[in-house]
Write a structure and sequence with these properties.
- This protein is mainly α.
- Helix content is 72%, strand content 8%.
- It contains 6 helices and 3 strands, in the order ααβααββαα.
- The chain has a 3-stranded antiparallel β-sheet.
- Helix 1 (4-32) crosses helix 5 (101-120), helix 1 runs antiparallel to helix 6 and helix 3 (56-63) packs across helix 4 (67-79).
- The two termini are 14 Å apart.
Length: 145
């Protein structure tokens, strides 16, 4: 059974990990600012780029959101010719989503743009803060173990 100090250390580690996640998310949002993609759209595009294809249900499970929300997000991407849908000929209930050639190009362009945006922003403070948070987490985890 855990004593109070161990529980306190675990909560501190969790809080630090959440702060790291928040900081990394904010940096990505800043990087995406000029791409025209929402965070969810970007996640869908990158997921499809990494996995080749997926159904709306798979995407919903991967992002822990409803299928309806995924359908709303993918509709715009289909309209913009970034992803395409293809009905499975053996089971018409299954619709596969995949990147179009245009979508593949935009993902690569988006990656370059995000990287450039992150370099252009005043990230030294953010990276320094993130580094300190990771160091604090490492120390907290060492106390737990």
């Amino acid at each position: 059974m855990l004593n109070q100090q161990q529980i306190k250390n675990q909560f501190e580690s969790l809080a630090t990990l959440q702060a790291i996640q928040k900081q990394a998310y904010q940096m990505l949002v800043q990087g995406l600012a000029t791409t025209g993609f929402s965070m969810r759209e970007w996640e869908i595009l990158v997921y499809l780029e990494q996995h080749g294809q997926a159904t709306a249900s798979e995407l919903a499970d991967a992002f822990m959101v409803t299928r309806t929300l995924i359908s709303r997000n993918t509709w715009r991407l289909i309209q913009d010719n970034l992803i395409q849908s293809q009905v499975n000929p053996n089971d018409r209930r299954i619709v596969w989503l995949s990147l179009t050639v245009n979508g593949q190009e935009r993902v690569q362009e988006g990656v370059r743009q995000v990287q450039a945006n992150l370099k252009n922003f005043d990230q030294s403070h953010n990276l320094e803060k993130l580094t300190k948070q990771v160091e604090a987490l490492s120390q907290q985890l060492a106390r737990i173990n």
